[in-house]
TrEMBL record:
Gene3D superfamilies: Aconitase, domain 4. Signal peptide: none annotated. This is Aconitase A/isopropylmalate dehydratase small subunit swivel domain-containing protein. Residues 1-105 form the Aconitase A/isopropylmalate dehydratase small subunit swivel domain. It holds the Pfam family Aconitase_C. GO terms for molecular function: iron-sulfur cluster binding; lyase activity; metal ion binding. Its cofactor is [4Fe-4S] cluster. It comes from Streptomyces haneummycinicus. Belongs to the aconitase/IPM isomerase family. Keywords: Iron, Iron-sulfur, Lyase, Metal-binding.
Amino acid sequence: MIRGTFANIRLRNQIAPGTEGGYTRDFTRDGGPVSFIYDASRNYIDQGTPLVVLAGKEYGSGSSRDWAAKGTALLGVKAVIAESYERIHRSNLIGMGVLPLQFPEGRTAESLGLTGEESFSVAGVTELNDGTTPRTVKVTTDSGVEFDAVVRIDTPGEADYYRNGGILQYVLRSLIRK
């Protein structure tokens, strides 16, 4: 199931032009060759490098089942930055411990000059550990791009799930505390 995540032939990964489905570039290897997403993700996980997905409008449309978000999390994705989200998939991402962020209104990866080859830093997420949900977080890249991303954790319950690393961890911790 993990290998099938992002493998839909209608998906076009802009970082791997000329491909469709489950391909990306693997920057853990010299020259960043095109590789299967699963194989590249294993290399990033082995290096301890968390991943970020850059996405367009209605991210997750057609993939609202929980496995779409579970596969994303198991590939090592820690955050998705999208123009907008399909409602159920956004909620499922949180349930799997993946942070859904949204580009500022009217901005896209392209308009910000993002190529997907950057390293990202997200500041302000730790406010969730203090019991508050920040409205935005500061996203910076090693290429000098900086913007305030909207945090798409929309309810206190979702904040609890994310704070615990996902819904399963939330339930387990709730049971242990009793």
